[in-house]
Amino acid sequence: MILEKGEGSRHRSVLAGMDATRLAEILIDLLDEHVDDLDDAGLSASELMGAEVETFRDAGVLTDDAGFVVTLADGSEFQIIVIQSRR
Fold first, then answer.
1. Cα torsion at 42, 15, 63, 78 (round to 10°)?
2. 49: which of 23, 43, 74, 77 lies 20 to 30 Å off by Cα?
C-alpha cells in the first residue's frame, strides 16, 4: 500500500523522501506491469497495447523535469511530467 492512513483525513506516504525522477520510474513500471489489469477493471487496455514508454532522458527530451513519454502504436505521443511540489 502506497498511502497509510494517518490522523484524521490526512495520509502519510510511505514514499516520503522520494524525488520526482524515482517516482516517474515507478509510474513507468506500474504502467508496464499492470496495463492488462485495466481490462479486469472494465476499461479497455487495447489502446495501450504496443505502446512504448520511455523516461525523458531515454527519449532524448531536452528538459530538467522528471517524467516520461508514452508513444502509442498509432504514433500519438504523450508527455507526463512529474513535479515535486513539496518536500
1. 0
2. 23
Cα separation values, 73 from 47, 77, 82, Å: 8, 9, 23
- Cα separation values, 18 from 15, 69, 72, Å: 6, 21, 28
Residue 57 pLDDT > 80: yes
Instruction: Examine the pLDDT at 35 and tell me if it is beyond 50.
Output: yes
Say if CB 48 and CB 34 are below 8 A apart.
Answer: no
Number of H helices, E strands in the chain: 3, 5
* Burial tier of 24 (Cβ tally within 10 Å: 0-12, 13-18, 19+): buried
pTM of the model: 0.72
